[in-house]
Design goal:
Largest sheet: 7 strands, mixed
Number of helices: 12
Shape: globular
Structural class: alpha/beta
Distance between the termini: 41 Å
Number of strands: 11
Oligomer: single chain
Strand content: 15-25%
Helix content: 40-55%
Strand order of the largest sheet: 1-2-9-6-5-3-4
Length: 359
């Protein structure tokens, strides 16, 4: 098992990455005998992994109750927050209860946000079951829910007490979800690590085949890359914004579609291509690098073009509300070479429109 320790100013926690980790002793630290917990998951994960986690907890003498919600980004909203908090209150859960998020990014974001506000804050544990959540969403303490006018517009920073990644959960993940998760993996390589990008070019097929050695290396690598950036900028005041490469446009697509009919990773893939085209138009990325980015996304099975029913004005209505924008300045994350990215502001609208038209 690989362990990546996140050491922040006010909180430290481990990311445990391995296979069959629910067979290991004391994996749920700091939960102890007699402590109360609430396992929050969705109806897809429920029949696959809930009982494995539930049995481990009960055999360890930990009191556990479960809340199962419907699956989907459209349920990540304040109505669901209110519903889950109501359940916690009816069951008399107090500030010493630990919430456990078992699922993908939706479950992790939702559970983390509830943990941050329930009785002014309770501890929570992340058990990410999708590739996207294992390499990105479960790490770093960003929690939140969606608003009809924008994705993740309501949220907080609230770090988990631990992250448990059992790579075996990917065996039950639909192929479409696995492919979508690889968009975040490719994102890390494009903005931070050229050698990792080259490794992905040579090993993406092994990951898609769920090769254990490749998966363990890939997930651990991404966790280490994210660890470095969140330690430098926990509250997103500076270079942590680089992690949003592709997200300004991707979130616009998701919001426009009502958080339906497209997976988060698919939308981010399109967003990364738009940002890549902007960089080329501005003279940073060479055309051969644009082609390499395009090729790895396409080879993985990710989309690089958006539906044509979303026009320029549709994008701008969401882009102008993006959380990275400050004092009316629209912020974009652009790769200036494979392995390096920068933050840009106030890019000419015609350049942005030209890049969108390419997708």
């Amino acid at each position: 098992m690989n362990i990546v320790n996140i050491n922040l100013t006010n909180k430290n926690y481990p990311i445990n990455i391995g296979f069959d980790i629910f067979k290991k002793e004391n994996i749920f630290y700091p939960l102890k005998v007699g402590k109360k917990s609430v396992l929050i998951t969705n109806e897809n994960i429920d029949p696959l992994w809930k009982n494995i986690v539930y049995d481990y907890l009960t055999k360890s003498g930990i009191k556990v109750s479960t809340i199962v919600i419907k699956d989907g980004e459209k349920y990540k909203n304040l109505n669901m927050v209110n519903s889950i908090i109501t359940s916690l209150l009816h069951a008399n859960h107090t500030r010493d209860t630990i919430l456990i998020a078992l699922g993908g990014g939706v479950i992790g974001d939702l559970t983390g946000f509830i943990a941050s506000i329930y009785q002014r804050g309770v501890n929570f544990i992340q058990i990410p079951t999708t590739l996207l959540s294992q390499v990105d969403a479960s790490i770093g303490g960003k929690t939140g829910v969606n608003h009809v006018l924008g994705k993740n517009m309501i949220g907080s920073f609230w770090q988990p007490v631990s992250v448990l990644i059992d790579v075996n959960t990917l065996n039950t993940l639909p192929k479409k979800q696995l492919i979508a998760g690889l968009s975040e993996v490719i994102k890390y390589a494009i903005i931070f690590d050229y050698e990792f990008f080259c490794w992905l070019e040579n090993n993406i097929d092994n990951i898609l085949k769920l090769d254990k050695k490749s998966l363990l290396y890939c997930i651990t690598k991404c966790c280490k890359l994210k660890k470095k950036i969140i330690i430098e900028d926990e509250y997103d005041f500076g270079n942590r914004a680089l992690l949003n490469f592709g997200h300004t446009f991707g979130h616009a697509i998701e919001t426009h579609l009502g958080y339906n009919n497209i997976l988060h990773g698919e939308a981010i893939s399109i967003g990364m291509m738009i940002a890549t085209h902007i960089s080329e138009i501005l003279g940073y990325l060479k055309h051969d690098q644009v082609l390499r980015i395009q090729n790895i996304l396409q080879h993985t099975g990710l989309p690089i073009k958006n539906s044509k029913n979303m026009n320029i004005s549709s994008y701008y209505s969401y882009i102008e509300r993006d959380k990275k924008n400050i004092d009316g300045n629209i912020t974009f994350i652009l790769p200036i070479s494979i392995g390096k990215a920068k933050i840009f502001k106030n890019i000419n609208k015609q350049v942005i429109c030209s890049a969108i038209e390419k997708c």
